[in-house]
Amino acid sequence: MNAPLDPAAIADPLVIGGIAYRSRLLVGTGKYRDFDETRAALVASGAQIVTVAIRRTNIGQDVNAPSLLDYLPPAEFTYLPNSAGCYTADDAVRTLKLARELLDGHALTKLEVLGDSNTLYPNVRETLKAAERLVADGFQVMVYTSDDPIIARELEQIGCAAIMPLASLIGSGMGILNPWNLKLIIEQAKVPVLVDAGVGTASDATVAMELGCAGVLMNTGIAHAKDPVRMARAMKLAVEAGRDAFLAGRMPRKLYAASPSSPTAGLIS
Question: Smallest Cα–Cα separation from 59: which of 117, 106, 26, 93?
Answer without folding.
Answer: 106
